[in-house]
Amino acid sequence: MEWKKINRYVLYLLSLFIISLGVSLSIKANLGTSPLICLPYVCSLISNLSVGVVILIFTFFYIIIQILLLGKGFKKRQYLQFLIGSIFSFFVDFSLMIVNFVNPAGYLNQFLLLLFSCLVVAIGLLLEIQTEVVYLPADGVIVAIEKGIFKGKAFRRHVNGYYGSYFVSNIFRLSWGSS
C-alpha cells in the first residue's frame, strides 16, 4: 500500500475523531445537537445506553436501509461503513470521556461551547470529505434515498431537510413520551 493511500486513511480516522469530539462538545453544551446525532442521543438518555452504543445500533439500521434502497447499486466499498460506524461510535464515547470535565455554567458559556462544537464538527467534515474514503452511515442514508427513491435527480437538499425534520419530530415524540 502506498504512503499516499495510508495518509488518506489516517486523515480519515483523524477526521472521524474530530467530528466525534465536536459531537461530544455539543452534547456537553446541553443546548442541542445536530439532527443526525439528536435521535441517538435522546435514545441513549431513554435507554441508559452510551451514546456510542446507540450510534452503533443506528449505524447497522442505516446501512440496512441503504442496502434495501440501492440493492445491487450498493457498492462493495460502502460495506466499510460497518467498520467506520463502529470506529465512530467508539470515538464518540471516548471523546465524551475526554470532555467529561467540561461543564459550562450559564447560557452564554453553553452557547459559546455550542458554537465551538460546530466549528470542530465543520473542520472534521472538511477533512472527511477531502479523503473521499466512505460515507458515515447517516450520510450514506441520505445519498441512498436520493439515488434509490429520487433516482439521482438533484433532490439532496430536499432530502436533507426532510431527513432533519424527521429526526427532530421523532425527538419530540421520544422526549414527550419519556417525561
UniProtKB/TrEMBL annotation:
Pfam families assigned: DUF6198 (PF19700)
Keyword set includes Thylakoid: no
Listed InterPro entries: YczE/YyaS-like
Signal sequence extent: none
Parts of the chain that traverse the membrane: 9-29, 49-70, 82-102, 108-127
Key words of the record: Membrane, Transmembrane, Transmembrane helix
The protein's name: Uncharacterized protein
Organism: Methanobrevibacter millerae
